């Protein structure tokens, strides 16, 4: 009875990163592109059943549901060698095929219309698992389908499966370059509200940072989606490593998430990864120690989130989990932690105990890498709020001008008023406030001073 | 006197030589006997004339030739040929002769040359030629060397060539009449009588002059006997030899049953007996000297050129007395000693300056050690303990069940380890035999250990006795046997696999299995404990194995895995009595003895408890995340929820760090060491030591040793607080959700009735929890084990508690730590 996780891939971005994720998982578990267990994959130290189910002895099928409102990406998948990997019944492509037109409202109302069909698939999948622990949603927050349909799904799932965890891998838009999607700030904000209220854990994948890493660290001039998505899939697979290769600790999602999230709202996680390499580049010859890995994980340039530089220096870590894969001497961990502590390489919250947790995990025996040790950091850092603050700013700019709202007014939710937008703004503002409060030592009494600020705003839509 | 003693035989020889006319017979016999004795006591009978046996034989034949006794010469040739031949088939004779004869025969055969020489001189020297060159040494006393049966050494020893007194000068003018006035003054007893009495006394026999004192076990001068003071002193000094003799003889004759004394002590007695028979021989010589003397004085010639005097006696008995003293000292020291201890005591006499005495001790020691040597060889190479009287330094405890053969069945009797063995050597011998026993009895492997027989042959070739044991071979046997055993354990009994299984299951290494088990047994273990649970729990265990990665584990491992319900006491819940069990048998049971298993069980309880806390904390967080969504509309509870969330964060942090510490810093790190040690282990003992070290490390670092008892209590307090918090949150959530439902149904709100009490309880539990944690951290910071100090650092990684509690920041200073390392200040709650 594993703690199964069902993955929902929404929209172009969601399906693209989902595709890369399954490619990676197949490689790591020795499963062919057609879902057949490779002859060499006989080790039996991994747990495939968390993410796959078995059709028969040899045949593994991802617990994945692929949803999109336009056919392009799903067609690409269906024309790839991995076409036969998925359960065809789990692939849902809107019959209209028109897409959401990068409009959150459109995506959301599509969801309302398609509810029955989509939840047929999800319910069947849920019933097929013995001990479903969580849903994982892959999407982007800026477009139409991933954000709008995604938001709708988040609301419905938390209603329909109140006892299941909902985790998301949410791709945040690249703010470094101007987007062709002008309503991006609206989409983002509306989605962020659902991520705040209806998800339990959000892994923030910031396109700004991912592009920066691709150009600065991997020396790719104009990084392609595939290259960026490969980075994302690395993070996704590493963050699920302890579920798939059970060892002492963090063997289920709640065990992974519980220490990272101090209160139910503060559940937006940053990631960092090392070593960052692409196919053409060799890693440095130097032997990598645990300390090296942990130190690099704390360096801003390895973070997959681009936060605004912290002027006051008050932002801090609430918690850190380092998942280290590869050949690691367990006796080195404590020493490394002490060094990090002595050098004060990480600043932690002032109001409660916090530390760097380390999970050692196996590395897949079937995937060869040039490095012996790799590390993923999952961190709850209050500076993630600067990302939300930036979204708020951009939103405010558009909202003040009442720009590009016509498309939204066409959708049912916004026909009467734009209250939903303002309400979302309140939720995000209060989230930013709470993150700021969490940098101060009186955070313990924060809830007392502002009774239900967050709850009040959410009541309107609840 | 025994017919077969040397003096008796010599006498017989002389009598047969001097068969002839009766008048002449006695005289001739007397001369011949005297000559024989002179020859015997002379030191270098042949050093000038005869170098080899061959030359003596030639001389004899020549002598016979000159006397024209060709017939006899031929007969001699023939006899001589038979004599030399008989040496080679010496063994056959053993069957026909009694022990004494055999002994005599052997000494004759061994000293063939000397015997032939004696014959030659007896024939060569006419009766009147008694004072010819040979006689020059006539009064030379049997040297110490002559005590040995090997008379060839006597011949070679240049020792007593210098004679302290020239017999011709000494006392030559003293005249005797009774009562006599001697050099020493007036005496009641004649010197002759006195001398005879002294000779008796040498044998511990009382007479006219000396009286046996039973209380002091000594001979005393009878009070009626008056002797001049100087003489008395001399006499008493002489008689001391008798006392020494008595002591030695008493030891030899003291009734010896083997069960009380053992083989070594008997061998010791036999060796002493041998020494004593040499002593008897000396007495015989002295006796004969006496008789010569008496004969002369009977003739009233009046000139004492030969015979016995006090001074001679004193000189002649000087070295025998030293020997006897040594023997007496040995006897004294060895009183009541047996086996290896006896050998040790005797060996302590080896280290002395007197080379001659050292040889004596060594000779005795070799004999004493003979039975021990046999035992050692049998034990080392066959694992057989043939030690009916408990003399060997390895003992067996037959009451021990086979499961603890390695640890308890065979034990080393340290007192029986000969002191010329090092401790390491003794241990090696013990382990070698034990390894063989283990293979035979526990692994039921009767096949010979490869190479061991060859080593045995080498060992037997190279070592003559226990003293000259070839340690190189023993060491080789040790490493061969232990390595073979280890290999059998590794290859056939998969020791590593089982140790690994213990780590995976009893020490909770198999994460998915443990998680799953926790989930499945929780509802059962929350109930009050009863012994009937075990069947249900066993079926849960099976289920748990089937649907986790444990299903891929070795079938043998899974077969051994079981649940254990210990006897519940009043008020126990299932959690208090449940543990995993790993069934072991055969060789495995010897390594994982019940004692070791108990320690694993203790570890399991601690790790399982920590895991359970982690599990409960995760569940509470899950509730906050999922059910918490329903409470968003309930403004009144937001404050208390926030508090509960942050307290839970703190608890989760603690539980996670604690679990992490236990599984990584404690188990994983110690396991890493164990794995290295297992790879490098060459012997079973090394393997056991490594495992023992592993268990000790894990136990002490997991706060399970005696030193950490107080800390353990605090940890328990922390766990209790967590459980209490769990109940409070349950109550908060059920009440709050009820309230939400009421509001939806527009029923009357009851929130104000439960909220204050929950708030108060939450505050109380928060305060008590904090207090426990801070004291816990304080105790860790002053713990002597740096690993536990490290745990304290990890639990307060961001110094959050340190800021709150001045005790903690102070405790981190070096001077404070030094102050408190050995004593905890009393804890306040």
Walkthrough of the structure:
The complex is a heterodimer of chains A (462) and B (829). Chain A has 462 residues and is α/β, with parallel strands linked by helices. Chain A has 3 domains: 264 residues, Rossmann fold; 112 residues, 60s Ribosomal Protein L30, Chain: A, CATH 3.30.1330.20; 63 residues, Helix hairpin bin (Helix Hairpins). In chain A, the strands form 2 sheets. Chain A has a 10-stranded mixed β-sheet, with helices on both faces. A two-stranded antiparallel sheet of chain A has the order 2-3. In chain A, strand 4, helix 2 and strand 5 form a beta-alpha-beta unit. In chain A, helix 10 packs across helix 11. The longest helix of chain A has 24 residues. In chain A, 57% of the residues are buried. The C terminus of chain A is likely disordered. Chain B is mainly alpha-helical and 829 residues long. Chain B contains 34 helices and 8 strands. In chain B, the strands form 4 sheets. A two-stranded antiparallel ribbon of chain B has the order 1-2. Chain B has a two-stranded antiparallel sheet with strand order 3-4. A two-stranded antiparallel ribbon of chain B has the order 5-6. In chain B, strand 3 and strand 4 form a beta hairpin. The radius of gyration of chain B is 45 Å and the shape is elongated. Chain B starts with 5 loop residues before the first helix and ends in a 9-residue tail after the last helix. The C terminus of chain B is likely disordered. At the A-B interface, helix 9, helix 11, strand 11, helix 16 and helix 17 of A face helix 21, helix 26, helix 27, helix 31 and helix 32 of B. Chain A: Keywords: Cytoplasm, Cytoskeleton, GTP-binding, Microtubule, Nucleotide-binding. Chain A: It is found in: Cytoplasm, Cytoskeleton, Microtubule organizing center. Chain A: It comes from Daphnia pulex (Water flea). Chain A: InterPro entries: Gamma_tubulin (IPR002454), Tub_FtsZ_C (IPR008280), Tubulin (IPR000217), Tubulin/FtsZ-like_C (IPR037103), Tubulin/FtsZ_2-layer-sand-dom (IPR018316), Tubulin/FtsZ_GTPase_sf (IPR036525), Tubulin_C (IPR023123), Tubulin_CS (IPR017975). Chain A: This is Tubulin gamma chain.
């Amino acid at each position: 009875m594993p703690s199964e996780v069902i993955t929902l891939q929404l929209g172009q971005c969601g399906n693209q990163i989902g595709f890369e994720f399954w490619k990676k998982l197949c490689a790591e578990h020795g499963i062919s592109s057609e879902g057949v267990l490779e002859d060499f994959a006989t080790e039996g130290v991994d747990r495939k059943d968390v993410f796959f189910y078995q059709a028969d002895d040899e045949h593994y099928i991802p617990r994945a549901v692929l949803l999109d409102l336009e056919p392009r990406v799903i067609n690409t998948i269906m024309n790839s060698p991995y076409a036969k990997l998925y359960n065809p019944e789990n692939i849902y492509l809107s019959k209209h095929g028109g897409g959401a037109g990068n409009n959150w409202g459109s995506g959301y109302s599509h969801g309302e219309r398609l509810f029955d069909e989509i939840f047929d698939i999800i319910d069947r999948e849920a019933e097929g698992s013995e001990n479903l622990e969580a849903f994982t949603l892959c999407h982007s927050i800026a477009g139409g389908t991933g954000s709008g349909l995604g938001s709708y799904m988040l609301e419905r799932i938390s209603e329909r499966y109140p006892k299941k965890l909902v985790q998301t891998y949410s791709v945040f838009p690249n703010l470094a370059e101007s987007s062709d999607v002008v309503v991006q700030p609206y989409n983002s904000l509306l989605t962020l509200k659902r991520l705040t209220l209806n998800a339990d854990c959000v892994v923030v994948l910031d396109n700004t940072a991912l592009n920066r890493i691709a150009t600065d660290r991997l020396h790719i001039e104009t990084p392609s989606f595939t290259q960026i998505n490969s980075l994302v899939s690395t993070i996704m697979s590493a963050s699920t490593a302890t579920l798939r290769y059970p060892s002492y600790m963090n063997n289920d999602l709640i065990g992974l998430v519980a220490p990272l999230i101090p209160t139910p709202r503060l559940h937006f996680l940053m990631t960092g990864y090392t070593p960052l390499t692409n196919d053409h580049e060799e890693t440095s010859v130097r032997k990598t120690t645990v300390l090296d890995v942990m130190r690099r994980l704390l360096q801003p340039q390895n973070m997959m989130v681009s936060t605004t530089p912290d002027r006051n220096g008050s932002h801090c870590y609430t918690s850190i989990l380092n998942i280290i894969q590869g050949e690691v001497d367990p006796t080195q961990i404590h020493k490394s932690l002490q060094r990090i502590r002595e050098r004060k390489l990480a600043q932690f919250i002032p109001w409660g105990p916090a530390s760097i947790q380390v999970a050692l995990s196996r590395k897949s025996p079937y995937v060869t890498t040039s490095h012996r040790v790799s590390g993923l950091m999952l961190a709850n850092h209050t500076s993630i709020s600067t990302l939300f603050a930036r979204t708020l700013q951009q939103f405010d700019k558009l909202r003040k001008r009442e720009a590009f709202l016509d498309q939204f007014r066409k959708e049912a939710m916004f026909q009467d008023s734009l209250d939903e937008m303002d309400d979302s703004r309140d939720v995000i503002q209060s989230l930013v406030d709470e993150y700021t409060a969490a940098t101060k030592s009186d955070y313990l009494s924060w809830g007392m001073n502002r009774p239900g600020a967050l709850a009040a705003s959410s009541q309107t839509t609840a | 006197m025994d017919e077969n003693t040397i003096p008796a035989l010599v006498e017989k020889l002389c009598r047969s030589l001097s068969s002839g006319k009766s008048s002449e017979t006695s005289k001739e016999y007397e001369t011949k006997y005297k000559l024989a004795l002179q020859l015997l006591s002379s030191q270098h009978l042949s050093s000038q004339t005869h170098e080899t046996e061959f030359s003596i034989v030639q001389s004899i034949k020549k002598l016979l030739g000159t006397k024209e006794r060709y017939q006899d010469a031929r007969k001699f040739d023939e006899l001589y040929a038979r004599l030399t031949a008989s040496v080679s088939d010496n063994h056959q004779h053993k069957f026909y002769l009694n022990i004494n004869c055999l002994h005599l025969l052997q000494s004759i055969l061994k000293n063939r040359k000397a015997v032939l020489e004696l014959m030659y001189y007896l024939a060569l020297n006419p009766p009147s030629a008694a004072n010819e060159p040979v006689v020059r040494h006539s009064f030379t006393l049997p040297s110490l060397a002559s005590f040995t049966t090997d008379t060839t050494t006597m011949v070679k020893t240049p020792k007593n060539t210098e004679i302290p007194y020239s017999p011709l000068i000494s006392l030559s003018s003293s005249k005797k009449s009774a009562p006599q006035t001697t050099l020493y003054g007036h005496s009641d007893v004649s010197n002759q009588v006195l001398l005879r009495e002294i000779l008796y006394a040498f044998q511990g026999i009382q007479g006219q002059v000396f009286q046996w004192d039973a209380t002091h076990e000594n001979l005393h001068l009878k009070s009626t006997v008056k002797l001049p003071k100087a003489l008395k002193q001399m006499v008493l000094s002489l008689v001391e030899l008798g006392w020494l003799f008595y002591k030695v003889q008493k030891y030899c004759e003291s009734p010896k049953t083997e069960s009380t004394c053992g083989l070594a002590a008997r061998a010791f007695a036999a060796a002493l007996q041998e020494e004593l028979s040499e002593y008897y021989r000396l007495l015989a010589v002295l006796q004969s000297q006496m008789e010569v003397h008496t004969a002369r004085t009977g003739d009233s010639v009046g000139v004492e050129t030969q015979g016995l005097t006090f001074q001679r006696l004193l000189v002649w008995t000087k070295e025998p007395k030293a020997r006897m003293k040594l023997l007496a000292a040995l006897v004294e020291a060895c009183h009541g000693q047996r086996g290896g201890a006896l050998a040790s005591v005797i060996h302590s006499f080896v280290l002395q300056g007197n080379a001659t005495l050292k040889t004596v001790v060594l000779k005795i020691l070799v004999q004493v050690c003979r039975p021990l040597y046999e035992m050692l060889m049998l034990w080392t190479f066959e694992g057989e303990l043939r030690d009916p009287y408990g003399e060997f330094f390895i003992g067996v405890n037959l009451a021990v069940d086979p499961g603890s053969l390695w640890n308890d069945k065979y034990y080393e009797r340290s007192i029986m380890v000969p002191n010329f063995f090092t401790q390491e050597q003794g241990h090696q011998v013990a382990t070698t035999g034990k390894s063989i026993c283990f293979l035979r009895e526990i692994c039921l492997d009767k096949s010979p250990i490869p190479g061991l027989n060859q080593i045995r042959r080498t060992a037997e070739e190279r070592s003559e006795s226990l003293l000259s044991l070839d340690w190189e071979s023993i060491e080789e046997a040790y490493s061969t046997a232990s390595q073979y055993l280890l290999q059998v354990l590794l290859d056939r009994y998969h020791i590593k696999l089982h140790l690994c299984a213990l780590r995976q299951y009893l020490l909770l290494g198999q994460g998915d299995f443990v998680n799953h088990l926790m989930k499945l047994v929780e509802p059962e273990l929350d109930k009050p404990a009863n012994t009937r649970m075990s069947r249900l729990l066993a079926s849960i265990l099976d289920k748990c194995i089937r649907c986790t990665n444990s299903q891929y584990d070795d079938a043998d491992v899974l077969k051994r895995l079981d649940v254990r319900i210990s006897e519940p006491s009043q008020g126990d819940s299932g959690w208090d009595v449940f543990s995993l069990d790993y069934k072991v048998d055969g060789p495995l049971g010897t390594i994982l003895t019940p004692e070791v298993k108990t320690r694993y069980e203790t570890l399991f309880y601690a790790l399982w408890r920590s895991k359970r806390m982690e599990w409960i904390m995760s569940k509470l967080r899950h509730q906050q995340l999922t059910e918490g969504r329903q409470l968003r509309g309930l403004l009144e509870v937001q404050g208390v929820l926030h508090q509960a969330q942050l307290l839970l964060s703190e608890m989760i942090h603690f539980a996670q760090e604690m679990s992490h510490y236990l599984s990584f810093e404690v188990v994983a790190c110690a396991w890493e060491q164990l794995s290295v040690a297992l790879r490098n282990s060459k012997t079973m003992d090394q393997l056991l030591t490594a495992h023992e070290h592993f268990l000790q490390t894990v136990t002490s670092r997991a706060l399970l040793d005696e030193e950490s008892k107080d800390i353990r209590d605090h940890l328990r307090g922390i766990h209790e607080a967590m459980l209490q918090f769990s109940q409070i949150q349950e109550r908060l959530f059920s009440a709050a959700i009820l309230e939400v439902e009421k509001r939806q149904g527009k029923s009357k709100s009851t929130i104000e009735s439960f909220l204050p009490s929950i708030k108060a309880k939450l505050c109380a539990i928060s305060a008590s929890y904090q207090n426990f944690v801070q004291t816990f951290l304080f105790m860790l910071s002053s713990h002597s084990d740096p690993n536990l100090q490290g745990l304290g650092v990890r639990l307060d990684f961001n110094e959050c508690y340190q800021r709150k509690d001045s005790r903690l920041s102070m405790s981190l200073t070096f001077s404070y730590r030094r102050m408190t390392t050995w004593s905890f200040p009393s804890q306040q709650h």
